[in-house]
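Lab manual, section 2.4: Encoding a predicted structure.

Procedure: take the sequence of the chain (104 residues), apply the prediction step described in section 2.3, and record the output as structure tokens. A sample record is shown.
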Amino acid sequence: MWLDTCKLVKNNETINDSGKLIKSSENMIEVFCEEKSIGMREFYSAQTSNLKPEVQITVKIFDYNKERYVVYNEEEFTVVRTFHPQNSDDVELYLARGIHDAST
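Recorded output:
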């Protein structure tokens, strides 16, 4: 059931006029989501890449625009992997706790 919500964050950091790095909430969009458990195969395959996915949520594909960060249950997460099953309107987001550079 799609009773939970999360906030998809396009870019969590910006630089203000004085050159200070600040968090931005302007680029957040709140969407419905569904939490699922991380499978053992997914957990162990991510460990080989030094990633630690802790939460998997599913959102509608039309809501997701390749955002790198998610706020879920008042915690910040980095999207470490996505999966879009064929013939589905959903996209699975695998999340690691905290804000990290997703390219490393």
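Check your result against the sample. The mean pLDDT is 81.
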